[in-house]
Amino acid sequence: MQIRSKFVDTMKIIRHINIPQTSFFLFGPRGTGKSTFVKSLIKKDTLYIDFLEPDTFRTFSAFPETLIKTVNATDPVQVIIDEVQKIPQILDVVHKIMEEKKIRFILTGSSARKLKKSGADLLGGRALNFRMHPFTAAELGNSFSLDKALQTGLIPVVERSADPAKSLSAYVDIYLREEIQAEGMVRNLGTFARFLEIISFSHGTVLNISNLARECQINRGIVSGYMDILEDLLLAYRLPVFAKRAKRKTASHPKFYFFDNGLYRRLRQRGPLDIESEISGPAVEGLVGQHLRAYIDFAIPDTQLYYWRTLAGNEVDFILYGIKTFTAIEVKNSGILKPVDYNGLISFGDDYPEASLILIYRGTLMMKHKNILIVPLEIFLKDPGEYFGLKDKK
């Protein structure tokens, strides 16, 4: 059984996240508010352990069995371990305790894959996995600024700072220094930094590893490894092609997105030859994508997110496919729509008449073109579920 939690942080921002009454993992990149959230769950008889504290890290990394001794001494009802991926072997101890005692464990981390790659047992399915996302427009309410979100993103530690642009730069530097370099994830930090700049041009586009390797002037295998690092740290994701019951030949490569629009804007270098629409277009699309991922996890976790592209060039940015919804969403960075803007959705609707069709644009009026619902960007972001047909299926 799950309960819906609305958590208010120190800045009175409501976070929407579903949590179970049993043990669970909460994964998410740094700065997304995991620690603040789990601290709000501290109650009487809670043992809280933070592996970012140097003394705590040294003790438990040297002697993981210290957890058993601490639990036996304090007899907690609930144990919270922050940044559990820092000491993967602690999960073996947690598993042993869970088999012997009725204790709820809440474990946060910035990488599920890092735990798996270390050989750690993710508690044999005894704890569910959940994700913490950047802020959404619905969570920020009246304080949401579309212009700000498109420029510096919605990572909580950045969005709530007095100087978001400066905080965003520091955020990238911290990851490079404390996560990538300190843990020896790459041999050449300069090469990886160059890779980050080049791959920022792929945000919101179909990803081709071979082409990316040529641009970076490094081996294809190294680029694949760098991609794995970004996904390991939950800083980026790849969107697969929707090909169920495909009536036409579809693309084979996934699309690439950074987890937050601000990260893309920070890494995407600008020059005198750049056109603003070339930068803002992917930014708008990425902002919609991160909202969709957050909403899916919060409200319709049985749903998968895809994109659709045929070899003939017809494309739809996002496809939501699940038990409760089948929706195709196209995003346009324009306040004025042209007939060609509907082509992707029309083609998808021809192949999949069961799907709801939505076009999001930068205008201000709700409209309808044939069977395509046209929704202003800001209105959609504040309540995505309004347009997925969920209310009729409850």
Concise structural overview:
This protein has 394 residues and is of the alpha/beta class.
Protein described:
With 394 residues, the protein is an alpha/beta fold. The protein folds into two domains: 2-131, Rossmann fold; 137-393, no CATH class. The protein has helices at 34-39, 54-62, 66-74, 90-100, 112-117, 137-140, 146-152, 156-159, 164-181, 189-199, 209-216, 220-232, 261-267, 276-299, 343-351, 377-382; strands at residues 2-8, 14-20, 24-27, 46-50, 78-82, 104-109, 128-131, 205-206, 236-239, 255-258, 304-309, 315-321, 326-331, 356-361, 367-369, 372-376. Strands 11-12-13-14-16-15 form a six-stranded mixed sheet, sandwiched between helices. Helix 11 crosses helix 12. The radius of gyration is 22 Å and the shape is globular. The model is unreliable at 1-10 (pLDDT under 50).
Defining traits:
single chain, 6-stranded mixed beta sheet, 394 residues, Rossmann fold, 2 domains
Task: Spell out the blueprint of helices and strands.
Elements: E1 2-8, E2 14-20, E3 24-27, H1 34-39, E4 46-50, H2 54-62, H3 66-74, E5 78-82, H4 90-100, E6 104-109, H5 112-117, E7 128-131, H6 137-140, H7 146-152, H8 156-159, H9 164-181, H10 189-199, E8 205-206, H11 209-216, H12 220-232, E9 236-239, E10 255-258, H13 261-267, H14 276-299, E11 304-309, E12 315-321, E13 326-331, H15 343-351, E14 356-361, E15 367-369, E16 372-376, H16 377-382
Parallel strand pairs: 3-6, 3-7, 4-5, 5-6, 13-14, 14-16
Antiparallel strand pairs: 1-2, 8-10, 9-10, 11-12, 12-13, 15-16
Helix pairs in contact: 7-13, 11-12, 13-14
